[in-house]
Sequence to fold (282 residues):
Amino acid sequence: MKRFAAFVVGAVFGLTLSWSGMTNPDVLRDGLLFRDAYLMLFFASALGTAFIGMRVLKVLQAKALLTGEPVSWTTVKPERRHVVGSVLFGIGWAVADVCPGPIAAQLGQGVPWALATLVGLVGGLVLFSRRSAVTSG
Amino acid sequence: MDDQLAWYVGGPVLGLCVVALRWLLNERLGATRAWADAVAARFGSVHAWLLVGLIFGGVVFGLVASPLDGYGWLTDTFTGGTQWVIVPVLIVSGALIGYGARLASGCTSGNGLSGNAALSPASLVATGTFFGTAIAVSFAIEAVI
Fold:
């Protein structure tokens, strides 16, 4: 049931990303070049909605519907890795005009170019887990 | 579905997905975490199933909408005999996206939406950094091509 719930949320997320043009590199690029306000308005309204929704959950002291645990989260202090990682991510995002969620949705749509991005993405993730395994152990 | 969904519909729906995952499972929605769990073969993880959902959402859209025509500035710039260049460019970009987002503990969804909605200072810093970098790189590409 928990996995099915996550699947459904993912499916709505993936369909919305696709329908909003987040899987279309031209939409991303026009947004990042400020030629079109869509990307920024889309992102800001998504963030505003998520922010209000999370506040409501907190005020109501909600319990997670499928696990019964109290809804709670922790915040993280900024470290160097958040900046360095985001610079690397930002470069890749701007060149390929796609981020991890839309890569998955592009693969679902059958966008052939997404296979190349996928190869790099998996390589990057594997490299990261190997490197962190070495540093921590 | 060939018309782009209005931002004031799509944005809030996306935001509600973040709230839904928190309310249903008390989990942070993040596509990078979803990919990382799937790549590590953690199929019991709800995040890996979120990824399956993301792909499925794309499949549904692909069935009803027209396919993408080319691939943005890359297919506009590299045409004919130089089109192969796009493949290594996308592979390197994908690697930067995967490694960078993991290092920063999140991408546009994990840090940009979920982390900022929780007012996590690390996510605010990460989001400012990746938006700033992406805007600068986009203008740099525009200046060169």
Chain A has a mean pLDDT of 96. Chain A has one domain: 2-136.
